[in-house]
Write the structure tokens for this entry.
Amino acid sequence: MGAPDPLIALPLTGAAPQERGDAARNRALLLDAARRLIAERGADGMSMDDVAAAAGVGKGTLFRRFGSRAGLMIVLLDEDEKAEQQAFMFGPPPLGPGAPPLTRLLAYGRERLRFVRTHHALLSDANRDPQMRFNSPATLHHTHVRMLLESAGTTGDLDAQADALLALLDADYVEHQIHDRGHDLDRLGEAWECVARKLCGT
Amino acid sequence: MGAPDPLIALPLTGAAPQERGDAARNRALLLDAARRLIAERGADGMSMDDVAAAAGVGKGTLFRRFGSRAGLMIVLLDEDEKAEQQAFMFGPPPLGPGAPPLTRLLAYGRERLRFVRTHHALLSDANRDPQMRFNSPATLHHTHVRMLLESAGTTGDLDAQADALLALLDADYVEHQIHDRGHDLDRLGEAWECVARKLCGT
């Protein structure tokens, strides 16, 4: 067992239980190894054995840390989701604040299409679970799109309109459009723009 | 073995291999039994043992006929889909031809919401398979909604608009709205109407 990480040694009221230093290090090693393997061979080609070996960590530790392969995949996706959310909530325009709402909405659609394309395998895994499809982080995307629609002066049922729009960014939908319909991300970005503009009444 | 059904005794060029009479009867018995059991106790409460027993048919015949529980569920859904399709393609207005396209589109949304609610378990099973989500019968619904949008004078990317609208009728989405958000079918029908009217520019 390593010494506690000094950065997280002070108890914080209401904070999650502190990770021991070696647990935190193992977590980072395992996530880095998984990312590297997915980049090299795709998510389907990554086994839990490979991840443990590439991280130089025991397989028991890997399973204790993430529960299952699905658990590991969800943590990976979650970390990248957080970085993307930072960008559209606090980053520079046109994605972040400072640009007009419709401009931000169009930028969000194109950015999210790229993200969904890159992370297709992870998002598709999450889609298999109906609870995952409609819970966090899906809720955050819904809230963001709803807020932009409202700021753009959109009338009517904002929740339904946000849901209809977001369906065009669903991982399996995007993959279907690209693989089976022969569309590319530009074409899908234009489709998003068409529907977004109609809902905003422009 | 029973005598061949006289209605299907003549060979048809390009037709599927003819079913023997007893095979066709067993199929009908098994499907009826499955429908009855689902109506009584829900799809989750229906086992393949129950279906075979209720139909008075051997379990081996059941599995030979439908391959698996999933196969049986898909056949059931398929038959009800066909009846619904007849109604919106050839039935009386406002669902069928004769009513203005926007009226038909609004009627379609409300009818489909009821269908999806009734068949949630079967449709949700199909949703777990990304191929099923975007193939027949999904294609037929897309074609129908696209045709109505076009007839109503909708401009822009009709495919994307049809897809965005149809997302509001997705089985898991509808279930989520009802169970987790506390909405009812009327409220979901109004949401469909709101988005449909915006896309049609009314």
